[in-house]
Amino acid sequence: MKKAALLFVAVLFATVTFAQSNLPIDPKTEKITFRKVINTVGSEDEVFNRIFSGFLNSYYKSPASLLSQNDGRTMKGKHQMQLDNGDPVKSKWPWITYRFTIEVREGRVRYTLTDFMQKTQSNHPCEEWMNKEDPMYQPVWDSYLNQIAEFAEDWGKQFEEKLIPEKVIVEEEW
Description:
alpha+beta, Alpha-D-Glucose-1,6-Bisphosphate, Chain A, domain 4, six-stranded antiparallel sheet, 4 helices, about 25% strand, disordered N terminus
């Protein structure tokens, strides 16, 4: 009975420790996944063009080179970002790769950011930073996870802003 109680407490503690982060975890893949469905106006082609010309062209330097799929309804791509570890030498800051998917349907758009990996000689999933029981745990990992969450929130906010169609002002002729 003591072993069962001890096991229960250990599992509960490990779950609480692992789940302390506020990052969304996909239950199927067990990966950090930011996903949102946004209602929008316009035909699928209009929305797709707004996303490509309005968001992708302004957010990324060369969007066509980072897209691995672009079939007119779904865009998939891979990009990277650099985290801040507080060290003044920026070359020591970790690079993170991530994948994004943008799906356009009639009246709605869904985006997904996932597969956050630390770029090293062998890539490491960022989900490893959530385990505070890891003997290699470093407190800076919490900062990295917060930076990933801030990045995804900013990415989503800018994406939503570009989905709003521009108002066409008709000039009056005198």
